Amino acid sequence: MELNGRPVSAGELSGLALYGYGHFTTMLVTDLRVRGLDLHMQRLTRDCAALFGAELDVPRVRELARRAARAHPSPCVVRVTVHDPEIDLGRPAARTMPQILVSTRPAPVSVPPPVHLGTRQFTRDAPDIKGTGLFGVIRQRRAAQLDGLDDALFMGVDGRVSEGPTWNIGFLDGEGLVWPQAPCLEGVTARLVDRVAGSLGVPVSTRPLAAVAATRMRGAFVTNAATGVRPVASIDGVDLPRPGLSLRIARAYQELPGDPL
Q: In this predicted model, what pLDDT tens digit does every residue of 106-128 receive, in sequence order?
């Protein structure tokens, strides 16, 4: 873990740990290439302006991410976090000095099995920003796992499903790909899946989906940069089919060429 290209101290992490004010993106890096690198950089730039009112040095971000990836066996997961180590809890608007924290971890070594989900009422704070404050989403994931499931599928007070703690969800209705029409954090992988669907001639749409309607779909999958496209086995105990189209989408996503980091 490095801050601005040098080892980070515990003190420089204290503000992030105690207050959680910052934003990040997570990338799967294979041979120094990243799927959707432009989308990751756009996210960081947008969120830096939103949280700090500052312009992000994208070439510097790429340099630091590349440095971290080189020091780790390929493939690896690289997370770029932007935060201010000197943020003041009482006066968070007193300074705007966002810094670049880069951390790495091993990439998943095997294809994860289909996931069993349970709906839980939860809406992310500022869903348009990939913020570092993960208390709410981890709490919902933990509760779902205590219920014997793999993860939580969020739904709003109106009963519409939206997303999961660290992923988006797409549904197949027999005609094409359907994304839930509800407030959520739009992921880079989900946007890449849209591109893949277009190349396969698969219609893509969004519409409101209640939890009961979601269990009646012809299939579903979740999308995440580290794990790619992962099929959904069940929602609220109702088994979902696993159509061939979801396998085609997953395969086409894996075949996307990465961009040089």
A: 998 888 899 999 999 999 999 99
